[in-house]
Write a structure and sequence with these properties.
The complex is a heterodimer of chains A (about 220) and B (about 55). Chain A has about 220 residues and is an all-alpha fold. In chain A, about 75% of the residues lie in helices and about 0% in strands. Chain A contains 7 helices and no strands. In chain A, helix 2 crosses helix 5, helix 3 runs antiparallel to helix 4 and helix 3 packs across helix 5. Chain A starts with a helix and ends with a helix. Chain B has about 55 residues and is mainly alpha-helical. Chain B is built from 2 helices and no strands. The longest helix of chain B has about 35 residues. Chain B is elongated. The chains are: A mainly alpha (about 220), B mainly alpha (about 55).
Chain lengths: ~220, ~55
């Protein structure tokens, strides 16, 4: 009963979350003195990046769980998280390029953060291609699980790239010694973005799992 | 103006990506659900009998 209520409330909660996010990003947050209006891209860009890291951490966790238990439900969860994670990763790359054009004057630079993030997008793109090409349910699940674990190694590399190498990308501003290096109201708008995009991610993964379940049910119904 | 155009473009891209993917999944779920054979609904007489018993 509680579980059904929780999953039923996910859609409306996501919709409300996104409306509050729009208000926080465009109305509540003040205009940045240095960058102007374009800085508001930050409130959609960073939460998308956070969700892609979360998605790929779940792919890694579900892949380990699959290899340990051989339960196909873990493989289904990994597939759903990878697909939705790719969506958020693509959003990060596109919004980042638009922001870079306005601030740096170029869409792309072969910078450690940008390059390692592009590698992340390519790795999970390859993961999805692998899932589509391997024949045999058990073989596909096993190979995908290995790839899902190996690909996750790029996530800490992306996160630490701005501190390990010289980069054009802004340094961490939230999780730093002495607290966030931005006004409190901007941090509030960012937190609203993180929560609402996380809800959107959960909603999309649930929807993706429902589609997979229906696909399987139809396969079982189909005459051999 | 360039800054504002970039801002609007970025959020349009986000709306198209997230909104488009959500719609695609919802449509696919509906189509697949409609293809599954449904169990026959209970006859009216059965319902009346159940309520009389209950």
């Amino acid at each position: 009963m509680t579980r059904r209520f929780a999953t039923g409330a996910l859609g409306p909660a996501t919709a409300v979350g996104l409306v509050v996010f729009a208000w926080a990003a465009f109305v509540l947050a003040p205009t940045d003195r240095a960058q102007g209006q374009v800085q508001r891209i930050f409130y959609g860009h960073l939460p998308s990046a956070w969700v892609s890291f979360l998605a790929f951490a779940l792919v890694c966790g579900a892949s380990i769980a699959y290899l340990a238990t051989r339960n196909e439900r873990w493989d289904g969860l990994a597939a759903a998280c990878a697909e939705v994670g790719m969506l958020f990763t693509s959003a990060v790359l596109l919004t980042g390029m638009i922001w870079a054009r306005a601030v740096w004057g170029v869409y792309w630079a072969w910078d450690p953060r940008l390059t390692s993030f592009l590698v992340l997008w390519l790795l999970y793109g390859a993961y999805l291609v692998l899932r589509g090409q391997v024949v045999g349910v058990e073989r596909r699940a096993r190979l995908s699980a290995v790839m899902g674990i190996v690909a996750f190694l790029d996530v800490p590399l992306v996160y630490l790239s701005v501190t390990w190498w010289r980069t054009m990308h802004p340094q961490p501003m939230i999780v730093v010694e002495g607290g966030p290096r931005m006004p409190g109201v901007m941090v509030v708008a960012l937190v609203v973005g993180l929560v609402s995009f996380s809800l959107l991610f959960a909603y999309l993964v649930r929807l993706r799992l429902q589609v997979t379940a229906l696909d399987l049910a139809l396969e079982e119904e189909a005459p051999a | 103006v360039t800054s504002l155009v970039a801002l609007v473009t970025a959020y349009t891209v986000l709306a198209v990506l997230y909104g488009g993917y959500t719609l695609r999944l919802q449509l696919r779920r509906r189509v697949l659900a409609s293809m599954l054979p449904r169990e026959a609904p209970p006859l009216e007489a059965d319902v009346v009998e159940e309520s009389a018993r209950g």
